[in-house]
Structures are given as C-alpha cells and as structure tokens.
Amino acid sequence: METFRHSQEYFFYITLGIPFYMFGQAMNPIIRADGNPRFAMVSTLAGAVLNIILDPIFIFACKWGMMGAAVATVIGQIVTAILAVWYLLHMKIIEPSKGDFVLQGSVCRRTLILGITSFLSQISLVAAMAAINNMLRKYGALDAVFGQEQYAQIPMAVVGIVMKFFQIVISIVVGMAAGCIPIVGYNMGAEKKLRVRQLFTKLLVAEALVGAVALVLAEGFPKQLIDIFGAANESSYYTEFAIKAFRTYLCMMILACVNKACFIFLQAVGKALASTLLSMFREVVFGVGFALLLPVFFGLDGVLYSMPVSDVLTFVISAVIIVKTYRELNAEGAKNA
Q1: What confidence tens digit (pLDDT) does each residue in 10-59 have?
Q2: CA gap 64, 313 in Å, rounded
Q3: Taking the CB of the first residue and of the last residue of the chain, which one, N or C, has fewer CB atoms within 10 A?
Q4: What angle, rounded to 10 degrees, do the helices at 66-88 and 18-33 form?
Q5: DSSP assignments along 209-277, one per residue
Q6: How many angstroms separate the CA atoms of 163 and 167, rounded?
Q7: What would the pLDDT profile of 277-305 be if each residue is shown by its tens digit?
Q8: How would you classify residue 230: left for phi > 0, otherwise alpha for psi between -120 and 50, otherwise beta?
Q9: Rounded distance between C-alpha atoms, residue 165 and residue 210, angstroms
Q10: Contact (CB, 8 A) for 73 and 98
C-alpha cells in the first residue's frame, strides 16, 4: 500500500508534464535533422540537469516527497520544450511556413508507419514491466524471507533499481542509434548503401562495447551500484538479493544493447515491419511470456532469468535479420556502384 500511495502521488503530478515532454521529444529529431545536433543535446541536457538540481531541493528542503520529484521532472520538461520552441522560430535550414503545419494524409501515413515501431516498443515494454512486477509480488509472497511483511517490498524495490540502471544504459544505446538516423537517411536517399552498411557495422560494435562496460559494472560492482540508489543501510537480505538481481538480470547486457540498436537501425532504413515484429517478440512474446512462465518452475529466481533468456532468443532472430540486411545492402550497393 505504501508503494502504491507513492506511485499514485508521483503519477498525478508527472502526467501534468506529458504535453511538454511529448513536444520536446518530437522536436529533438527535427532539430538534429536541421543540422544542429549540439542544440538538440543542450536542450535535453538543460532539462535533465535542472531536474537533478531541483530534486533534492523539492524533496528534502521543501519536504514535498514524491510530489517534489515529479514537479522537478515536469519543470525540466518545460525548459526543454521552451528551448525547442525558440529553435523552431530560429531554424537554420528549414524555414517552416503556415502551410507546412497543415496535415497531409500521405505524409502522416508514412510517418505513422515508421513511428508505430517506437510506439509499440514502448507499450510492449510497459506490458513486460507489469508482468514482471506482478510475478515479483506473487512469488515474493511465497518466499521464506520476502514473504515476511517487513521484507515484502525488497524484490520489487531491487528490480526497480536494476531496471533503472538498465534504462540508463539503454538510453545511451538509443542515443547513439538515433544519432545515426539522419546519416542513414541521407545515404539511403543518395543510394550509398555501402556507407549504410559500414555505419551499421560501426554502430553494432559501439553498442556492444557499451553493453560490455555495463556488464562489467553489473557483474563486478553490484553492491556499489545499489548503494548509489540509497540502499547502503538496508538489511543483508536486501543486499544479497540486489547482488543476485544485478548479476542475473543483466548478464546479457551486450546482447540487449545490440538488439536495441538493431530495432532502431531497421526503422531508419525503412524496414518498419521487421523492426516492429522484432521489438514485439522481445517485449511481449519473450518478455511477458518468460516473466509469466519461468517463475512457475524457478520461483522468484525465474523472474530474474526472464530478461537474459529473452535477450538471447531475440538476438538469434536479430542475427538472422542483420545478416539478411547486410546482404541486401551489399547487393544494392554493388548495383548502384
């Protein structure tokens, strides 16, 4: 009940910033496409840094608790949106006129086909998280330790922290892949398919390196990571489960990073259907499926196993699609040459 109360309070205030968040996120790729990735980065960082500064002020100094955390986030989103509006009025290459703001069916249709991938990916991720949280609550109650009232919140709290670390890493992965989208679009339009292939190779290597660094941190320093999130003085049960969760749940970080890069790159080269299906398989078929199935056989540990198993199976499918994409780019590149 305590967790639900805090979640409800945070959810109420954070929803107030949804319009500002959506506008800022929508303008970010437009700013990059206008040839100013630096401003796109600065506008996003400005909101994030302001959020970080205001969090301790609102939470501790003003004693607003969860409301303070939500309000700080919303203010950061508003700042990012304001900077986006300013840039919209001072664009370098694109000079929008009134007619450009009129919706065109053909443009909307093409945009929706490509954008539906990200939408379904986010929705399916929510479904996967809901399944994981429900299984943590159900099988945590059956555990000898976490079935006790004073320890009942530990599994959900720990996995929440593990997922937050995972999201930080994936944000880096998404940022690197998203930065390639304008370059991919330019070279696809110029029929430079071999360049696209080379960029894909470099992206996969870079994403694998990011995953390798994250893997080293998760496997080698799980206690230090959990302490960063304010768990230094928790019980020994908390620490033990946290170490197990980091080392088990994130043991396939390299594959997870490569999979995410593959989703975004396929979308960038116009393979919206392949990207959508791959994303749906990862989050819904594997993510939700194994989160529901594995705990039946392995109890609470089964929830932790669901992530690496899903990543391994998704990578098998991704590898097939990657090889096929390479062959297509090679064939088209040789033809154009």
Answers
A1: 889 999 999 999 999 888 888 887 888 889 889 988 999 999 999 999 98
A2: 44
A3: N
A4: 40
A5: HHHHHHHHHHHH-HHHHHHHTT-TTS-HHHHHHHHHHHHHHTTTHHHHHHHHHHHHHHHHTT-HHHHHH
A6: 6
A7: 888 888 888 989 999 999 999 999 999 99
A8: left
A9: 13
A10: no
